[in-house]
Amino acid sequence: MTGTRPHRVLVIEAGGTSDPLAGLEADGEIALTVASRSDEAGSQLADTDCVVAVHGEGVDAVAVLTQVREFDPELPVVVVAADLTVASDAVAAGVSEFVPAESPDAADRLHGRVLAAVAASPPDRSDKAGGMPIEDLGVTEELRLKKRAIDEAPVGVTIIDATRPDEPMIYINDAFERLTGYSKSFAVGRNCRFLQGEASDPDAVAELRAAVDAGESASVELLNYRKDGTPFWNRVDIAPVHDADGEVSHFVGFQMDITDRKEAEMQVKREREDLRHLLLRIDGLLQNVTEELVEAQSRSTVEGAVCEQVAAADTYDFAWISVPDRSIDSLVATASAGEWAVPTADLEIDLTVDESMPAVSAYRTGEPQTVTDPTVLSRLASESPWLDAADLAGIAAIPLSYGETTYGVLSLCTTDMATLNAHEQAVLKAIGRAAATAINALERGRLIASDSVTRIEIQTRDTGLFFVDLSERTGASLAYNGAVYRDDGSVLLFFEADGGTDTILEAAADYANIVSAESLSEYDGNTLFEFVVTDDSLPGLLAERGVRIDSIDVVDGIGSLELELSTESDVRAIVEYLQGRYPKTEIFSQRRVEQPPSTRRAFVGEIKSRLTERQLTALRKAHVSGFYEQNRTATGDTLADSMDIGRATYHQHLRAAERKLVDAFFNQ
Ligand SMILES: Cc1cc2nc3c(=O)[nH]c(=O)nc-3n(C[C@H](O)[C@H](O)[C@H](O)COP(=O)(O)O)c2cc1C
To answer: For domain 300-439, is the CATH number 3.30.450.40?
Structure first.
């Protein structure tokens, strides 16, 4: 038995109360409802714990049983019948208990069977049947329990009077007091909106307003403020309460603190948003940069494209690339782009002084540097007058590193506080790597040759260089006239010198890396020497590193060298190498110069432009007439005749043309 409630038994019988039913209710354990027809009983089955079908005229107990089973297969059904053949049909149809009507103790047996059937039925039967055990407590106790439950509920509970102006609260529970910090004496009598403040969502408030006006329920999440002013996220559920006439007289409201969940959600949302922005901005950027890099055919194009693309991203206001210039020990800007107009000279950073500059650290460590700390930013801005500390939100310096080599640094400035987070730094690092890879590929000549070269001027007093020592010892001035690299690794170096031929030849014999020396010709008091040197001589070592010697002039033991590197070569590495080997060497200047035309067509065009028309004609006639073939048929006379000039004049034109051609060939 559930609580103190009697079992509700529905009896279906045709005529007046049959004998076995007499006294069934006597001990209060069973409460009877009697129906004379099974179809009348249908609506009552939901509130029934047990059905008793009394077989007789007008009531087919087995039919009743079948009907009940359709409604609820578990509901206990006890069949009472005089006809024992009904018993077997009833058993087949799933009867719970059977009581023979004629038996002398039928009433007792029925009582016992009903109790047994109810006891055997599933325990949640009475719940399923919609019973409210709290009602069993009696009205006073029930109300007291309900009040305590609401008072002590772990969520805020409020009741407002919908019939009074401005819907004041007439009840708040303890949890509401704890949640909001407001006492009952303050809150009761007021509309709940005092919890709202400047950041409460007006849409959520309007939704509550509309629900109150329409007498409907609503559920919103909005920011509320405690008595001490601290905000919290409140989930407010309100529902109308109706009076006896069905009119909305009150509203009940539940308040739940969902701040933790909301903050976690907002954090996830912020991260997602950041990431989405980043993906839009930055991933597009990486793609754009890489597309440009594939197209780029020179280092300057790479540098320009990277700056343009980075500055084109909304987030960055200004971007520039600096590369090291060892002659002035500085990072100098080679490309820049963005919203700010900054003179290139202002972007120069002294490598020896400005250790704290992000670009310098990035260059030295090969690691990206990011500065977002306002104090550091304003210090950096004070050192770079073109930077506006007030707007600046961040600076990043990304090394353009490939393997061990750092070609330069991409620096960028932003006024957007939300940028330079970890994701973004990773993408910028990837851009730096992509740029460095492209530069490296260009350097190695995998892409098309560069359009300019870097020319550096160095001075040396290092007597480890034979020409410096030779000049110092003999007082002669020497000028480099070119070199021929032989297959065995030795190099023929041609120097013109103004000293005595013998003195120089004698002195030359003292150098271990000079294999032989001889004078080739003398004119105007100068002698042309040929020195055969070993492969570890300066020109050989430079040639190995792709460095071309443009000129060497040695006067009084001081050598001035002009060297040409493909722009993509690492000037720093070359200079450091030279200084390591010849310590008394210094770099004087470094500059980028346009390369002379380098394609075949440009080369031909260049020579043609140097020849006069007559020289070109003389040369072409000689060439096409087979003048240069071994068994030549054409003679100088015939060619001169064909041009209507004398033989001597023809040869003069031809020689001049040949000289220019050969000059161009070797200088090239
Ligand atoms: C039962 C009930 C409880 C409410 N609880 C809150 C609450 O906890 N926080 C809140 O900001 N608003 C709450 N409100 C909403 C306000 O009382 C008010 O209805 C809402 O501000 C819209 O009305 P207004 O536009 O006149 O301010 C509750 C409303 C009802 C009916």
So the answer is: yes
> Atom 27, ligand 1: which residue's CA is nearest?
193
Q: Which of 500, 497, 539, 537 is nearest to 515 (CA)?
A: 537
In contact, 44 and 33? CB cutoff 8 Å: yes
pLDDT in tens, 233-252: 999 999 999 988 889 999 99
pLDDT at position 212 over 90: yes
Cα separation, 653 vs 632, in Å, equals 19
Are the beta carbons of 337 and 319 closer than 8 angstroms? yes
The CATH homologous superfamily of the domain defined by 7-128:
Response regulator (3.40.50.2300)
What's the 268 CA to ligand 1 centre distance in angstroms? 29
Q: Does domain 139-257 have CATH number 3.40.50.720?
A: no
Q: Which segments of 308-393 are extended strands (E)?
A: 318-325, 330-338, 349-350, 369-371
Nearest CA to ligand 1 atom 21: 193
CATH topology match: 7-128 vs 600-667: no
Residue 537, ligand 1, Cβ within 6 A: no
What distance in Å separates the CA atoms of residue 258 and residue 241, rounded to the nearest whole number? Answer: 25
Per-domain boundaries in the chain? 7-128, 139-257, 300-439, 452-594, 600-667
**What percent of the chain is helix, strand and coil (3-state, nearest 5)?**
40, 25, 30
User: Is the beta carbon of 480 within 6 A of some atom in ligand 1?
Assistant: no
C-beta of 219 in contact with ligand 1 (< 6 A): no
Pairing state between β 514-523 and 491-497: unpaired
Q: Return d(Cα 112, Cα 52) in angstroms, integer.
A: 12
Nearest ligand 1 atom to the CA of 251 is: 1
Atom 5 of ligand 1: nearest residue by CA position:
192
Backbone angles phi, psi at 113, to 5 degrees: -65, -40
Residue nearest to atom 14 of ligand 1 (CA): 192
Residues 6+ apart with CB under 8 A from 657: 611, 615, 616, 618, 619
Nearest ligand 1 atom, CA 195: 11
The arrangement of strands across the sheet holding 318-325 comes to 349-350, 330-338, 318-325, 405-414, 394-402, 369-371
Domain 600-667 falls under CATH 2.60.40? no
Is the C-beta atom of 180 inside 6 A of ligand 1?
Answer: no
> Is any ligand 1 atom within 6 A of the Cβ of residue 209?
yes
Q: If you count them, how many residues does the chain have?
A: 668
Q: Is the pLDDT of residue 40 over 70?
A: no
**Model confidence, pTM:** 0.38
Asked if 625 contacts 639 with a C-beta cutoff of 8 angstroms, the reply is yes
- Is the CB of 192 inside a 6 Å radius of any atom of ligand 1? yes
Q: What is the dihedral of CA 561, 330, 439, 546, to 10 degrees?
A: 10
Q: Give tens-digit pLDDT for 602-627.
A: 667 667 777 777 788 788 778 776 78
Q: Is the CB of 238 under 6 A from ligand 1?
A: yes
Mean pLDDT estimate for the chain: 83
Q: How many CA atoms lie within 13 A of 630 on its CB side?
A: 0
State in Å: Cα 247 to ligand 1 middle: 20
Which atom of ligand 1 is found nearest the CA of 224? 11
d(CA 455, CA 453) in angstroms, rounded, equals: 6
